[in-house]
Amino acid sequence: MNSTPDLNPHDDLFSTIDKSYANDSLETVDGGEAVETAVTAKDYCEDFSEVHADSVKVEILAGAILLSVLAGGGTVGAVFSWFFFQSTWVFGSVLGAGLVLLLLVAVSSFFWPPIHYRHLRWRLDEQSLEIRRGVFWKHRISIPLGRVQHADVSQGPLQRMWNLATLTVHTAGTLVPSISLEGLEHSVATAIRDRLVRQTNDSQTL
Amino acid sequence: MSFENEPQFRSHDAPVTPTNPPVIEENLPSTALTSVPSSRLHWSSLVFDAVSHVWGYIIPVGIALLGAAKGNFVWMFLAGIFFSLSLARSVFRYFTLNYRLDGRRLVVQQGLIFRSIRTVPVQRIQNIDLVQNPLHRLLKVAEVRIDTASGSEPEAVLRVISLEQVEKLRKEIFGLQEQLEFDPSHQLESDQGWVVDRNNVSRIEEYADGDGSRNLDGGAGGSATENSAVSSNPRPPWTRTSNRQAAQSLIDLPSHWLVLAGLASNRGWIIVGVLMGLFYQFNDSFEWLKRFDLKKLRQWFPENQDRLTTVAVIVTAFVAIMLFLKILGIVWYLLRFYGYQLRRRGDDLQISCGLFTRVSATIPRPRIQLISIHQTFVLRWLGFSSIRIETAGLRSNQQADESVSERWFLPVVRDDQVTDLLGEIRPALKFDLDSLNWKVVAKRAVVRRLRLTVLEAIIPIAIGWFIWQPWGAVAGTLAWPLLLYWRWRQVKAIRFALFPEGFVFQSGVLTRQTSFTFFEKIQGIAVLQTPFDRRWKMAKLVVDTAGVGPAEHTLQIPLVDYQLALEYQLEIKRAAANHQLVVV
After folding, report:
1. What confidence tens digit (pLDDT) does each residue in B6-32 have?
2. Within a 13 Å sphere around the CA of A103, how many CA atoms are in the beta-carbon half?
3. Residue B316: CB partners within 8 Å, gap ≥ 6?
4. What distance in Å separates residue A206's CA from the closest CA in chain B?
5. Is ipTM over 0.85?
6. Cβ contact B211:B428 at 8 Å
7. Nearest to B147 by CA among B238, B25, B237
8. Which of residues 508-527 of B touch A (CB under 8 A)?
9. Helix, strand, or coil here: B448?
10. Confidence at residue B294, expressed as pLDDT on a 0 to 100 scale
11. Which residue has the higher pLDDT, A12 or B499?
12. Which residue from B17, B56, B79, B435 could staple onto B64, CB 3.0 to 4.6 Å apart?
């Protein structure tokens, strides 16, 4: 029953889900008894798929742009401080602080995206959309399929260069009202969105 | 319409139709409007509007008066202009607002040049609620709120119309609803496209069973018809048979319970807080308070005071203040909940209460997202609880706090009645706390919390140190065991469980809170880990519902063993995916 998500052949992925969805609905669903756990918690941790690897490039490019903007601004600031104060001391400290800041931004924008990417996973099965994210503060959020109020697919200019997209899922919940998954391939994002919205139309709850 | 004719599953490429039709705001040609007789508001609505304006302008008017006292009449002038403008607006509203039943719709029309017309389909009207303050009652009028399922805000508010008109409106609307229900050709256009799947059907039948079995001994005949109606001919979710059924009284709160609740509560302090806030806001107008001299207190003390008398006077004063606060609390409870009645009419829970201002509110049962039982320390000792509920919808926090239908759903109730009442709030709920398979927090959570107290103990030690150089710190250290005990009890009080219909969470040492939600109301399940959690192999399990906070107890369980949290996430997720009840 578990889908075997791959990065590329998502056509297969979604056809599997559709079949299992149809089967699932024919099963007798016992509303009452607590559901038996055939799948153990250990299995549950597996089978997650990553977002598209190009998302790292998008993040790094975005970081690089931020970095160059900062560097440009910093240079202008340093030159100004040189002309206004005519003091090596002020100039030196501004330059030093600017360099440290730049270094921090550089490190985080070049080293953080791969780490972030490694900790961002998702899974769509016949019951829910699940997202795992977070490097230090870890979140594992699972949204039952019928509960999605609406889902957005958005694309930034950089994401468009690699044909990636961000999926944002909104529920009626109040503690976790929405979660987003950035760096999905655009076709995957729209496929997930269509799947989620279809299920919601089939069952309206509130 | 029946299940046999309805497609049970929508095919996947079916067009997406909106399932919840929005209330139409339209501009109809005015010729169509004159054909049906329409009604006006009661003349006294002008008076009430004026009163509410005076109330709304009380601060600017106060400032203006202060200004006038100092010889500056500009503010007076400005306030006068604004006040008369808003009065003119109400007069205009009074003369242009009218409402009528036009075919199958209730139309509320307002304005002359910019005309706003609000159209509410009669079938979607869930209830007609009234608010009456003493002045309303004197004039035999009421503020009418017309509710639909769409949200928390009333769809239309008529402020105010006479009680005769209310009765007429009620009869017409509910009569029309009944007619429409028996005549399938009059179904709303948007009924098409409503899809019910297998799970839903089984769910509704469960409901029907529960109702039926309860009524074998209960005896209200209305539910039997509802029962058969559900299984053979399900209605579209927003038309309900409620209105033609007899109301069944669930509970009346006797006044001495309210007195008890008032005694046990700290409401008096809140009133004091409000007074303090007012004092600081109008600091200038309370000049006389500043002249109040502490030394004058002396005159209240006996002349030849010895130590004993002083202590006695202080103690008496303290007791008197406490007593006064308690009396305030009792008064608050009595004012708000005097004559509290909870009734059920079909799927509607109806509350009415209030000593001077009577409030009646209606909660459609299926819209309840979360039920929370609160037991404060004193009330628990006396054997009482209070029940709060949460329904979906956006509303400001303050409204929710004051809401009789949620925050004060059942202000006080005897413990042995809770189970029966829960069965009425949620049909067929068999809820036995003792028989549940409770899970508790991870064993190492105690150690983790107790270690944290070492850090927490620094605060009382530091405070003690600053107050009383060396010995205060010792006193602060002595507070540590108390803190330890407190934290230990807190951790031990947390427990959670699955029951056949949903998830329940209990916590709290002094005030015990037991909250539960149902699988079809669960919007998401999250397992959250902070770096510390990860070190201790723990997580926080969060069960999200659409309820908006008046219960003040969210389903967030800290310190759960990580593996257990994952297992519960899996189980709840599955159960939630399988429970998809069609209700609005």
Report:
1. 333 333 333 333 344 444 444 444 434
2. 6
3. none
4. 6
5. no
6. yes
7. B238
8. 519-527
9. helix
10. 57
11. B499
12. B79
